[in-house]
Every structure is written in C-alpha cells, then in structure tokens.
Amino acid sequence: MEEHAQLTVSFLPTKQDYADYQLAAVEAAASPKERLALRAVGFLMVVTGFVLCLFFGLGDPYNTLLCSLLVLAGLAVGFYHDAIQPLFVRSRAQSFFDRAQERMTAQTLLFYEDRAEIRSDRYEAALPYALLYGAYEDKNLFLLRLGPWESRYIPKRALSGEDCETLHRLLQESLQEKFVR
Amino acid sequence: MPTFYEGEPIAVVQQTLTEEEYAQAALFADSMRAVINRKGVRAAICLTAAALALSSVPAYLNQYATAWIPFVFAGLALLLAAYFFFTQPKRKKAHEAAVFRETHVLAESVTISVYRDSVAAESQVEQLRAYWTDYCACYENREYIVCAGGWDRNLLILAKKNIPEERREAVSAHMQNTFASKYRRVTSKR
User: How many CB atoms neighbour CB A167 within 10 A?
Assistant: First the structure.
C-alpha cells in the first residue's frame, strides 16, 4: 500500500524567500557565545566612551569627537547581530538572487512520519529525520538543516496556518531538542 | 526541465569519504579559492610588516628616545605570522572535520558519475545532478579533484584513489578542458 505524506509543500522561491532563508540560516548557525561576547564588548566600548568623555571630553571638541566615535563604534558592535548583520545578509542575498534567478527552481517537499523528501529538477533526497543536523523555525520559514552550513527551507507563505501547525508538530516530535524555534 | 547528456559517463567513482579526507579536500579548496587564503601568503604579509616595522627603528631612535612602538608592532606581526602559519590551518581543518561529522549526508557512500556536461551523485538518501557550469571552479592536487561553489552542495570531492586508475587521466583532462581558466592544478602536496 502506498504511503501517504503527512504534508506536501511546493513552492517557487521568490527574492524575499531567498533573503529570509539566508537570514534564517545565519541566525540558526550563530553561536550564542559569540553574540554575547559582541554585546559585552559593545557595552564596554559605550561605557568607556562616556567615562572618557566625562573626564577628558568636556570643553575639548577633539576629545569629544573621539569619545563619540567610540560610543558609536560600541553601539555598532553591540547591535551587530540585531541590526547590522541582517542588513548585510539581506542585501547580499537579494543581489545574489538577481544574478542567479534562473537557477532558483521549484521545489516539492513531502513530510512523512520518519523522513522528509525533497524534490527539485536536479536534487532528490529522502532524508530520515535522524540524519538531519536540526531544524529551525522563525516567523517566515522552516529550515531543515542537513549540517551547520547546509540547509533546505520551506517558506511559510507556501503553507496554510494548519499546515504550519502540522509541520511544527512533526518536526518537534521527530527532532525534539534539535528543533529550535 | 534540464536536459543532461545521455551518453556513457567518462568515469564512475564509488566512494565513502572519511573525516580526514573531507577536511583535507575542503582545506585544499579553501587555500585555492583565493591567494590570501594560503597560510604562506598570510604569514609572508605579516613577516613583511614586521620587517618594515623593524626597518623604521633607526628613524625612531633618531627622532625619539626609545623605539618601543616598532618593536611591539614587529612582535605582534611575528606572532600573527606564526598563528597564520602554524595554528590557523589546524583550526580550519578541525572546523571542516566538525562540519563533516555534523553533516551526516557527507559520510554516505556515494556513486559519482562524471559525464561530459554534468555530474551525477547518488547515495542511499540523495540524488544530485549538476552541470559543470554550476560550479565556480575546479582544483586538483595529487590526492583530490575538488569542484567548488556547487548549487545543491558546495563541494564535489573526488578522491583520486577512488577513481579507476585507467580513468584518472581522462577525468583530469576532462576537468581541465571543461573548467578552462577556472581549473587550477598543483603538483606539490598542499
């Protein structure tokens, strides 16, 4: 008897999908330690800037400018992951999409109880969930991670609300702690 | 639908990569991708900076009482050179090995068919087909042929020991012809 997929998704990637995917891939691969370290360094730079300004900057425009630059650099470092990196990633992804649009072919993903199947015109896979490195979900898409730097994605726009719930439940049950939301 | 060449493959390669092989091949591809990625080049830049800093010592002594700034700068540049030459390659290799361990599909046994216009890789869980033009470049050394920048998988690694001996030259010549200026071959061990 033929096995029926619990969920089937087909989509043709758009520029927005691809940018969301790149951003999610970077987010999923980001190390919490690195994030924390950048925040701490940024915070220290901002505090140092204010303290130096208090002691050496008052009345001296040159020192005030240097301290202000230190504070601004601290803000840039501290908020790099939240504000600056997404801008870079999106911009790079969108320009790559413009160059490689003809290679962004339609994909179909079928989710079974024990595996996910991926079909496009050049790639086919039947991946048992145990073989996956993990899965990631954000407000725009689901990410099936084959490894730290390799993944497939499913944009939520291609799923109904009910399908999103089904996929969320399936990944949660199959991957447990390897599924990150 | 893409139309692939339907004739006989140039070679069929059966292989199961090990962590060591993957790390070596990935590191080799990384070093070939850009000149600046090579440990020798990075170390040489730092050594040049150190030499320049030391060469400014007489001028410093002439101008100031001490010359600790160029010495500190030269020391840092030497340390950086040592890091680039000895430590960073080990860290990169460890990183690639970790990528291999965590990407379970890379450890699967795979049959790679090298065709005139494309490559087909088939394992128990995946079937991948790509035109050679999908890849950005091809690098070859004594042990590996690595095509980099693929669409569905970044690296296509062919360990030469797995290519049937009588087909090795044919595969190598085919890559050279297909990738033309994007093909790089090194004969020394790198």
Answer: 22
